[in-house]
Amino acid sequence: MFENTTMLITGGSRGIGASTAVLAAERGAKVFINYRSNHEAADAVVDACRSVGGRAEALAGDIRLESDVLAMFAACTKHFGPPTTLVNNAGILHRLDRVENYTAERLHEVVNVNIVGAFLCVREAVKAMSTKHGGSGGTIVNVSSAAAYLGSPNEYVDYAATKGAMDTMTLGLAKEVADEGIRVNAVRPGLIETDIHEGDRLERLWRNIPMQRVGQPDEVAEAILFLASPASSYVNGSLLNVSGAR
Questions:
Q1: What phi and psi, each to the nearest 5 degrees, are found at residue 196?
Q2: Which of 35, 102, 159, 234 is catalytic?
Q3: Which of 9, 169, 3, 186 is nearest to 83 (CA)?
Q4: Distances (CA, A) of 51 to 8, 16, 30, 119, 185
Q5: How far apart are the first and last CA of the chain?
Q6: Rounded to whole angstroms, how far apart are CA atoms 34 and 46?
């Protein structure tokens, strides 16, 4: 399905990004993984991709930094050619807290990674993929969150707000580049079993899910790969909830 795909995945060393990388590699994609600092975890994902017959490379980089984003796209192009799919997955959140306790430093970091970094990545993806710039088209899948419509009160309203911004960016960019061969969509995962959660959060909240369980990273990865694949060829500007209907 993805034999002619070069997939660049930000935040690809763990959780949803790692699951997406391995599934994509198994289905024929050439996978380039960005990670921030955990070299051992990134190497493990690369090894997992190769173990299923795929081709994969990884490069450390902080998507808040324009120079790192440029280096990431250049390295991907060097190894596998220009990316034809961007999975815009990297993001951060801080400790659960009320808005009244947020520091300026916390807010700057969340906004710079989840919004500024995400924009820098899609900017470079458009330059690489757009037929207007000599590219052959492609797909962008933004990893948003159910927090964008739930608001995450008493937990991380700041993170939720940045994911709301990502939803809006998805809608606007999808319309902006639709006639340049690029489709832009987003997934909005709900309560997924990854190490991003603090303490007993999964155990506290799973009963609020109508399906009465948390989701798995592979379930989100399948949705991402659907949006990246020809099977969704007429899907553009969609926000796909992967949340057990919460």
A1: -75, -20
A2: 159
A3: 9
A4: 19, 19, 13, 33, 29
A5: 31
A6: 11
Nearest to 91 by CA among 196, 184, 171: 196
Which residue from 25, 123, 128 is spatially nearest to 82, judged by alpha carbons? 128
Mean pLDDT by 10 residues, the chain (246 residues): 95 96 98 96 98 98 98 98 98 94 98 98 98 98 96 95 98 98 97 71 72 90 98 98 86
And the tokens for 221? 């990865």
b/e string for 127-161 if b means 16 or more Cβ within 10 A?
Answer: ebbbeeeebeebbbbbbbbbbbbbebeebbbbbbb
Report the 10 Å Cβ neighbour count for 212: 9
Helix, strand, or coil here: 138? strand
| 159 is an active site residue | yes
